[in-house]
Specification:
Elements lengths: L2 E5 L9 H6 L5 E6 L6 E2 L3 E2 L3 H14 L5 H12 L4 E5 L1 H13 L4 E4 L3 H4 L1 H17 L2 E3 L7
Helix pairs in contact: 2-3, 3-4, 4-6
Length: 148
């Protein structure tokens, strides 16, 4: 069975019923959440404890890695779980995790939900990263504007 990672900012947001539906897809799902670079794996807990955090900070310092400690932890977990594809809930999550996904050469599906594709502040902050994201992503899903 294929192994898919779903990346999201929250684990149980009331309004995010679509994420709960995605978690029921017929794949081996690994659900990561906690921030725009997810910090927790559902069922396993935080990707970093004090010792792992220290390890990643030291590794980053001495390897001149382009990855933050959170990115290194996410990358290690995706490799350990043998993830074959990433579904990023929200464009901002996809943009923040793009370097990790690219470094693992994983297909990326990005699901835009509204604010991440329509709010001026978000577009101003992430616009240049979205261009790179669109070049890399295997698929981009966006909500249709409701007709009145």
């Amino acid at each position: 069975m294929r192994s898919i990672a779903i990346l999201a900012t929250d684990s149980e947001a009331y309004s995010e019923t679509f994420i709960q539906a995605h978690k029921k897809l017929r794949y081996r799902i690994h659900f990561y959440y906690g921030d725009v670079i997810p910090t927790t794996l559902e069922g396993s807990g935080p990707l970093m404890g004090n010792i792992k955090n220290l390890y990643y900070l030291i590794a980053r310092r001495f390897s001149n890695s382009i990855f933050s400690a959170n990115e290194m932890a996410l990358k290690a977990s995706l490799k350990k779980k043998k993830v074959e594809c990433v579904l990023a809930e929200y464009g901002v999550v996809a943009a923040e995790c793009l370097n990790v996904v690219k470094s693992l050469n994983l297909p990326l599906i990005v699901h835009f939900h509204g604010f991440d594709a329509s709010e001026y502040r978000v577009l101003k902050e992430y616009g240049y990263r979205y261009k790179e994201l669109f070049k890399y992503a295997s698929s981009v899903i966006a909500l249709k504007k409701k007709s009145r």
